[in-house]
Amino acid sequence: MIWSAETIGIFFLTGPVPDNTIGKLGKLESLDLSMNKITELSSDLWGLGSSLKFLNLSMNIIRGSLLNNIGNFGNLESLDLSQNSFYGEIPQGISSLLRLRLLNLSGNSFERKIPEGISELKYLGALDLSINQLNGSFPDGFSSGFKNLSYLDLAGNRIQGALPDLSGLKSLTHINVSENLLQNSASGVFQAAPSIVDLKSLTHINVSDNLLQNSASGVFQAAPSIVDLSSNQFSPITFGSSFNLSSLVFLDISSNHLDGDFSSNLGQASSLKHLNLADNRFSPQKFPQMFDLYALEYLNLSQTSLTGNIPTEISQIVGLRTLDLSHNQLSGRVPDLIMSNLTILDFSANNLTGEIPPLLVEKLRLMKTFNF
Keyword annotations for this protein (predicted)? Predict the structure, then answer.
């Protein structure tokens, strides 16, 4: 095994890191012990001090609290402790790492609130605290200092209250706050105020599985490719005037309180591959005009109050793999679907009549699931 005074990459280590080992490497700049089975850190690790710039302990089985001594690494630029068993509070010492550009503490059991001082990390470009047990509300001034932040992932926690105003995060491309307990309107991301229009770089929005309600009218002022607003209480959701629908690849607004008709603009989403509008309160209406969405692979219109016949033009979407029209008021015969890639089909809980077309019967044996 070779130990370098500049960079160490060690693999397949098991058990605790012995004391009086790493701490002796006073000029160490980069330490990568990821993807091992380390259970405990050496007590002298914290003695590395200001020389360390990159620390990666991800994907181990380290169990214990994270000491406030983490603040000793004043020149640290990247800290990745993801996929371990750290627990307790995220120490306030994190806010002393003023040069930090990446902070990844995901996949642990950290609890209580996000530290108040975390907004002091002004150079931070990526922040991932997902899949922990964090609770409470966002700290005051959470987004005010993150001028360089492009990636924010807080999914899979128990964070409460409203989203903060994110309009100042001009570099933000990815936000995921799904599977939390966020409430009230999502004004921090979706308000129609002019400031949010400036978030031109935003490409990925996921606020699913929260308790967000009221309007989400400003979400589409940006030009994201992935939008997931599912499992909330939104009503309505509208497209902003500056939104370029052709950039949209994934749209899930299922399980909300949407009413009225489908948006007539959806036909402009020429790059759309995944569309889920299921489980809403739309008015009874005929099948929407979306047959020009040739890139579509997943379409779920279950529980959307569809009436009338299933149009034969649905076969024009030749790339469809999943088609779910269940739990509607569709009537007439099942059309002869010619899509060769179809693997999941659900027409159940409708008022369809007649026999299944012979060509479709032949395709059923190649499907993963089907339900009439």
Answer: Leucine-rich repeat, Repeat, Signal
